[in-house]
Task: structure prediction
Amino acid sequence: MTAATTLPTASPVPVTGGVFAFLRRLVREKPLGAAGGALLLFFLFCGVFADFIAPFGFNDIAPAERLKPPGAAHWFGTDNLGRDLLSRCIYGAQLSVIIGCAAALLATVISAVLGIVSGYFGGKVDLFMQRFVDAWMSFPDLVVLIVVVSVLGPGMPQIIVTLGVLLGIAGSRIVRSAVISVRENTYVHAAQSLGASTPRILWRHVLPNVMPPIIVLFTTRVGTAILAESGLSFLGLGVPPPAPTWGSMLSGSGRTFMFEGPWLALAPGLCLTAVVYATNVFGDALRDLLDPRMRGTR
Amino acid sequence: MHAYVARRLLSLLPTLVIASLIVFISIRLIPGDVVDLMLSNNDISAEPKSRDQLIAALGLDQPMWKQYLLWVRAIVFHGDLGTSLWQGTSVAEQIGHRLPVTMELGLIALVVSLTMALPIGIYSAMRQDTAGDYAARSFSILLLAVPSFWLGTMVVVFPSIWWGWSPPIDYVGFFANPWQNLQQMVVPGIVLGTSLSAITMRMTRTMMLEVLRQDYIRTAQAKGLSERVIVLRHALRNALIPVVTLIGLQAPLLLGGAVIIEQIFVIPGMGMLLLEAVSQRDYPIVTGVFLIVGVAVLFINLLVDLSYGLLDPKVRTR
Result:
């Protein structure tokens, strides 16, 4: 505790004692955030090892087992085709993890590049880029996704790239504001007067000092991307069937059977809520620990 | 105030131009074979079209820059957004029917969101770090994570199973039968508003906490004013400004959320129009809805900025 509280506040990166020291601090100071992180790890584990964990395949049709309520054989029940819902949820985690992480990674890289360029150079570049971001952010994510899917057809790569670009452009604002405050620091001026090249300044001096908001951005974007993808799948425009995405499990043919088997409506929604809740509380905790300036934003 | 309004209107222009370019370019990215795909959809249209007719109807036979200028000119001077490929009706007319429906849904959602968020946010700030505050905050974090389409699905499924009640699905216009219309719109509005209220709740709490620590609040307390007057007249008005900005930022969420909610509750608004157009590959309608939604968000943000002038006299002179 003492090491954590006596850290100089001038440095935005208080991670001095390595990863384990940081984790200890997370658990001690932000237990809810740590629980969120643990829940995320659990879903990540389910996603990565879905093939070994899931008791059944995601598309094992068993007419005799159709619409069984949750019980010993099928913990989450079965759907109208007799498919095991628990297995489908576990495979759904796999898809969500892939799409969430890939889209969030792409979005974070785009945010970092755009934010650093716009914030560091300022002036006309910044003015033009910010008008573009304004215009871009006036389109609802879901509407852009629907339009792009209508043009390019549904599929995982399109969804990941579109979500990455969408969230990346919007997130560049957060990186930009961090860069603007870093840009005026003495060490940046010193590097400039020593004649360091611009790419070197950006890479060695600016980027490391805006890493905390970028890390937080990545965490929260995972949840946003998963939520956006599930919305798209819910409308039947996501990853095509029989892929068991949580969004598509709540829509389509399943909807008519929910009145006979209400558990169909519960499991995928609970998974979604749990993952998004976990990314939110984990992201909040990371933000409070890594980057006190961002507290209360978002 | 006039200068402020004029400046704000001027700054909207470049954004509008860029927004229109985004719409234009993203639709023109259609790979060539989409025309073939559309041709295969021909059977659903009243009068089948040839490949050349389709290309001409989409305006794809002109150079890019000319297509853009013609498109913008038609919109600005004639309010002409093109013609639906399969139904032969004007896109502007279709949107004219659907936009008020979505606006009504959005308005109900906004009212619901504010009536939930403001009292809870204020209460949470005034009783900071009490059990009530923690309960309110946990509730808002949880709300943030519940997808609106899941909430909507449960609202459709469970009341039907438990009480045999399900939301009406035959849409009636507000002016045709206000009572029946409201019965239909209130439940989807509550679902959409509940999802939105979480962020506003958190923001209201944060801003109220900040304002309640100001000197003028202490002065008001020293004068012996009642807590009610202090909160409503002195604190809330100042705390509201960032909250109002947030409402502007939420406009895209509201419209995006409406797409899903309209689908669940079978409400013929803009979202439904977009999804119908996407499934029929009716690109003039897709383009029109895409553009109008973006422009609507920009204008909501304009209204939000102008309302600062009313809430905060300092903005007018800046």
DSSP finds 13 helices and no strands in chain B. The mean pLDDT of chain B is 80. The two ends of chain B are 9 Å apart (CA to CA).
